[in-house]
Amino acid sequence: MLVIRPLQETDLEDLYAMAQKAGKGLTTLPADRDLLQRKIAHAQQTFNQRCAPEAGLYLFALEDTEVGKAVGISGIQARVGLDEVFYNYRLSVTVNASKELGVHVRTPTLHLSNDMTDTSEICSLLLSDDYHGGGNGLLLSRCRFMYLDEFRKHFSEKVFAEMRGVSDEQGLSPLWDALGSKFFDMEFTQADMLSGLGNKSFIAELMPKYPIYLPMLPDSARAVIGRVHGNTAPALKMLQAEGFNFNGMVDIFDGGPVVEAFVNTIRTVRDSINRHAMIAKKTINLDVPASERVMVSNRSFRNYRVTTVPASCISTDTVSLPPAVAEALQIESGDPVRLAPLKERPKAAVHALG
Amino acid sequence: MWLVRPALPSDVNQILEIAGTVDSETARLSSTLPRQREALAEKIQHSQASLAGTTSGDSQPPRMLFVLEDTATGRIHGTAGIDARAGNGQPFYNYRRDALIHASHELGISSRVDVLYPSHGLTDHTLLCSFSITPELRNTDAFELLSRARILFMAGHRDWFTHRVAVEIQGVQLADGKVPFWDSLGRHFFNMDFDTADQHSGLLSKTFIAELMPPNPVYVTLLSESAQAALGQPHELTVSNLELLQREGFQAGCYLDIFDGGPVLEARTDALHTLVISQPKTLHGAIESEVESAGENGGDLCLIAAGEGAGFRCTLAKAAGTLEGTLKVPVKVWEVLEKTAGDEVRVAPC
User: Fold this and answer.
1) Beta carbons of A225 and A175 less than 8 angstroms apart
2) Which residues contact A289 (CB under 8 A, 6 or more apart)?
3) Is A91 helix (H, G, I), strand (E, B) or coil?
4) B200 and A CB contact within 8 Å
5) Which of A189, A293, A327, B81 fits A171 for a cystine, CB–CB 3.0-4.6 Å?
6) What residue of A is the nearest CA neighbor of B181?
7) Phi and psi (nearest 5°) for A31?
8) A179 touching B, CB under 8 A?
9) Given 3-state DSSP classes, what are the helix, strand and coil percentages for chain A, each rounded to the nearest 5?
10) Which secondary-structure segment (H or E) carries A276?
11) What would the mean pLDDT of B258-280 be, rounded to a whole number?
């Protein structure tokens, strides 16, 4: 069974292996043991409420209970830009017009911005290659929305995600080559790594502060602004289905888009329902397609657990759970649980039953 | 003889010829000299009003236009102007080239970043402008006369002008007419080619610049390579002009032309070479033969200027001093200057 639970110390090696395999695309999870260890410790403190709510880093592991291994990770950062400065470019328009000459020119312009400061970010999604498909990625991503919904006062009203921008097989980014590299005498991958390692103050010190007029950049760089890397396209699609939209901000290095949504409008949040758990005596066939399954969470802040069950388990006031699922969620009969569809389709099913 | 005098409405045709057709080499070299009859006539009219002292205070500061005339033929061979206040009561636009150091202590990186800031810093400085001369006279005494006569005018009318004086030097333009700096920057915002913008600049109020110029500083490193190479570089045809101005004490500072990236030279008015070495003298009342011989026996080639306002004349002649401190010049110089024995002139060695 695949279960979402808080990331813990014992996940370090699994996490390190995943980060190593993921390569250079994942800025927030570099393959660096010390750093990963610090992140795990930070997450543990967060779940145990031993750090300030705004400093919280909520990291969840997807565990395959049969092999006792973490096979995926996803996270929420409670607030960005509070001790470090959080940078984006805002893609906006400068209009120059002269009535006298009949000239009206729109110039797309990048403005350096800290607008995402104090906003919650969903981040660090990584799924082991062997577990792709079957809705595992959806579970890993969407369990976070249920958590955001459950504990809203710990997060901002709006959440966002930074999507990986365009780079080629060698890790070269057209925007970086045309812009960043003119100001930072280093390769994109190196800058990205430094940024991921937390050496972010260098960005403030070296970045151009004045607006960048896009017509001054080569076509190759302009073309990737606000565009995602091919590998990230499915993740973007998934977030768009949840109601996330491009908010006009892009990554300062690779031009990848920032997408955002208000928590109360996220589809998973809107489609969530509460039920009481009822441990089923008869056996339930758990092996149904992702489209017929729903996420079920134990609603716990400290020991948040989510797994999936067939939508057919839901009844008017209760949801029937096999003992194994109840054990995985660490609940007993009568405990409140929260349910949300794993895929778009069961939405109708949930409501029909609810 | 060569004579520099204020432009007159009757000079319009000849000036248009110099300012000229598109093919003319001189045509590109002065954006402040209009190529349209009406605009030119207006400029001459304003110059006349300025010289007569009938322009109205701050909103219409004096702007003078002078011409270089061959007195033998009456033909005009060049023009030179002075705007008493750059911008003429409106903002005067330049880029100021400046630098920022982007340094990261943590990474041990320190790099110099060049930035072009939109600037009005030269507004109200005195501006030498509208310089044009027929190509065959370039690098001749007449060329020097035309340029330096303005400084003698300033010396004789010092309180019309401010303490700082500037000259915009035309920037790099390629043989095919392309201006690399414009193509890399201005074109994106003005949505027009360089020549069109340049003409507008000579003709229209500067409002269009305020409206269309990029409002924020521009990083030099994002300009095209050819545009970066052109920054602060003079057009090759202006080199002799540039050298002459440098001898006069002008130096390139941090200002650049907003259209072609050409250099702007600056100087302190009171330190201008011609102004410093020029002296007021009285014309010697010698009989003609004596004067003629004085001229022929050497004496030094000098710039000699006389007259106020619309009466300003400046010519080039051999002159010799006398023991009484007066100045002996050939009588034909008297005629050209419209002065006679005992009148005051201002003289500067050539």
Assistant:
1) yes
2) none
3) strand
4) yes
5) A189
6) A216
7) -80, 80
8) yes
9) 35, 30, 35
10) strand A273-279
11) 96
Q: Which helix (H) or strand (E) holds B14?
A: helix B12-19
Q: Using CA atoms, how far apart are residues B107 and B116, in angstroms rounded to an integer?
A: 27
A340 close to A142: Cβ distance less than 8 angstroms: yes
Q: Closest Cα partner for B284 from B350, B207, B343?
A: B343
* Average pLDDT value for chain A: 91
Distance CA A263, CA B279 (A): 83
Over residues B319-332, the mean pLDDT reads 83
Q: Is the pLDDT of residue B237 over 90?
A: no
Backbone angles phi, psi at A7, to 5 degrees: -65, 140
DSSP state of A25: G
Q: How far apart are CA B258 and CA B96, in angstroms?
A: 9
CA A347 to chain CA centroid, nearest Å: 22
- The neighbour count for residue B115, using CB atoms within 10 Å, is 19
Contact A121, A159 (CB under 8 A): yes
CA angle A94, A100, A104 (to 5 degrees): 25
Question: Phi and psi (nearest 5°) for A295?
Answer: -80, 145
Residue A346 is predicted with a pLDDT of 44
pLDDT tens for A31-50 read: 889 989 999 999 999 999 99
Q: On the CB side of A238, how many CA atoms lie within 13 Å of its CA?
A: 20
Section B7-14 average pLDDT? 95
B111 close to A (CB below 8 A): yes
**In the numeric block, which tokens belong to residue B237?**
């045809």
- Look at strands A273-279 and A318-321 and give their pairing: parallel
Answer yes or no: is pLDDT of A354 > 60.
Answer: no
Supply the Cα-derived Rg of chain B in whole angstroms.
22
Contact B188 A216 (CB under 8 A): yes
Q: Which residues of A touch B185 (CB under 8 A)?
A: 216
In contact, A293 and A347? CB cutoff 8 Å: no
**Cβ–Cβ below 8 Å for A105 and B191:** yes
* Contact in structure between A328 and A279 (CB atoms under 8 Å): no
Q: What are A263's two structure tokens?
A: 């928590």
A187 has pLDDT over 50: yes
pLDDT for res A200? 63
C-alpha torsion sign, points A163, A165, A167, A173: negative
Among A259, A250, A185, A186, smallest CA distance to A222 is for A250
Span of A269-273, A287-291, B289-293, B334-338 with lowest mean pLDDT: B289-293
Contact state of B191 with A213 under an 8 Å Cβ cutoff:
no
Do residues A55 and A78 make contact, with C-beta atoms less than 8 angstroms apart? yes
Q: Among residues A83, A94, A89, A5, which one has the least CA distance to residue A47? A: A5
Tokens of A128: 């082991």
Rounded to whole angstroms, how far apart are CA atoms B279 and B59? 33
Which tokens sit at B45? 């009219």
Chain A residues inside the 8 Å CB shell of B204: 100-101
**Alpha carbon distance, N-terminus to C-terminus of chain B:** 15
- How many of the other CB atoms lie within 10 Å of CB of A150? 16
Chain A residues whose CB is inside 8 A of the B217 CB are 210
Burial A200-228 (b: 16+ CB within 10 A, else e): bebbebbbbebbbbbebbeeebbebbbbb
In terms of DSSP H, where are the helices of B110-217? 141-156, 180-181, 187-190, 194-203, 207-212
